[in-house]
Amino acid sequence: MKRRTFLKKSGLAAAGAAAAPVILPSGRLFAASGRRMAEHVVMVAFAGGVRQQESILRRYVDDSQGEPYPGNIMYNLLGGEPPVAKIVYGTGVGGITPIPAVMPTPLEQFGTTFAEVSALSAGHFGGLNSLVQGGTPGGQGLKQRPLQPTVFEYLRRHGGYKATDTWFVGNGIGGSLPLLNHSEHPNYGAEYAGNFFAPTVTFEGAGEYAFADAAVYHPENELNPMLRMKAFLDQQFEADGTGGFGGGLNNTDEEKEQIKAFMRLMYDKVENNAINLPPVTDNGDTATVGFACEVLSHFMPAFTLVNLGAVDSCHSNFSSYLGALHRADHAVGHLWNHIQSIPEMAGNTTLILTPECGRNLQPNNILDENDWRAYDHSDENSMRIWTMMAGPDVPEGLTVGGEDNPVGMVTDTMMTVCDILGVMPEVQAGGMVHPGTDSLFNRI
Amino acid sequence: MRGTFVALTGSILLLIAGCTAEPDVTYGLQPLELDASNAEKDRVKSIDQWITILYADLFGEALGSAELFEVKQAFFSVGDQDIARATLVSNFMQDANVQLPDAGVMVQDPDGFINDTYVRFLVRYPTEAERTWMRNYLASNPTMTPELVYTAFALSEEYLHY
Description:
The complex is a heterodimer. Chain A is built from 12 helices and 8 strands. By secondary structure, chain A is of the alpha/beta class. Chain A has a single domain, classed as 3-Layer(aba) Sandwich (Alkaline Phosphatase, subunit A), CATH 3.40.720.10. An 8-stranded mixed beta sheet of chain A has the order 4-3-5-1-6-7-2-8, with helices on both faces. In chain A, helix 3 runs parallel beside helix 11 and helix 9 packs parallel to helix 10. The radius of gyration of chain A is 23 Å and the shape is globular. Chain B has a single domain, classed as Orthogonal Bundle (serine acetyltransferase, domain 1), CATH 1.10.3130. In chain B, about 60% of the residues lie in helices and about 0% in strands. Chain B has 8 helices and no strands. The longest helix of chain B is centred in the first third of the chain and has 17 residues. Chain B is elongated, with a radius of gyration of 26 Å. The chains are: A alpha/beta, B mainly alpha. At the A-B interface, strand 4, helix 5, helix 6, helix 7 and helix 8 of A face helix 3, helix 4, helix 7 and helix 8 of B.
């Protein structure tokens, strides 16, 4: 074949391939228009309210309790020497034994850190909504679903991801948390929702009573005949298909059975102490991350959001807060290691983490067992957070911004996820995110 | 003596007043005629209603408030409520106290089994078309058990409404 003929034919083929519609799992005809930098994204809402001073600024009790002992207590995420005294964040009586790092190199050294990011809310509700919606929950009440689309819906509607490609692993069912997997927006909604588990409830708490003994029916001899009978009953009733008090999330029948099988597996693993938990699992966050690892292994989702929150003990106990911060770091280190242990996810997964809000500059009057004062979150210092990310195309060892130079917003995290997974043009075109929200890649 | 007389008179008066006959009140339930209509079920059960009615239908007794709270917590921890419902029904089915008819009843008296199942779950009788479909379906699907039939009914859209 002559070169010109070859070029003509291959050009036509390429053009045809580009124009040919492909029916995606969502029913959408065309794939997302954005670039796709990684196959998977794991986003950690490093939530509960984290002060800059004890986290990214590595000041330990030097900038909170008037004790001259700075230091880094997040060994897996940040570099820097640990405190030399007043150790209370570890294990054992009084927390005097720090948990050893589980990552050989801190994430900071092979990823990019945005050291001073602006939150849009000083509270958990607003902050978490900023992380999932890319905006503020204006007009949205507590215990109400988001009014604007969530990152799950953007990904599923515009990226063509199926339901089990997007997961939200929550640290509980308090507040509005279980409602953040989809919005009430008429053009999005449950049809494009992310799947959700609060695993410490589903698999260890109340869920054991309600679900643990459920059988997994044989697909041909039991399940299909039962479903055909149900279909007949539904046909006779001519329901509107909303599913009553709580509907489905557009999981296919096959996906539903996968999820049920996963639940069965989790109950078995809990019984046999076989959940992939971090080496030290003595609070809710570490347990949540253990179950998140199981979700990753089982479903290898394109997008997973993991929510933490134990640091919120800082409202009444500063020592407990330090321990929770140390454990959140430990848990994320374990999560990163686990991602690298999954062949399908290793090397093509981006991890991105952001607290939803900070905490106050000044303490309240509550003293803990070490006579240290506690901190709430309501002032300007509560609007100071940070973001870290690592993965394909993420510059290594880069720090952007600093204490006197804020760069980026809390909503950027959600847009960055959309950027990595290729749906940012559609999200931007929708115009429903907070003004100025951008991919962090565009802020480097 | 006068005091004794007054006390005695007062006691007699109180006794007479206390002996007033109670009105004849009877409490009971009005019989309700079941039919084969599902058209009036246009309201969705709340999550509490669905769980408690399911429990009563499967176990013949009321679910305790503590257990209801547990089940609701579990439901809130699962995003896909279709999955939560299916898993709860299956979980209840494995309980030793669940009131399932013997599989033999389904084969020996299919019409009776179908009627009873419709009344138990959907609070109505099947139409002739429904009864015929069910009878043929059970006959041609020998792997169907009372557990699977009850599961199909408990998960049906009609069961979510009242």
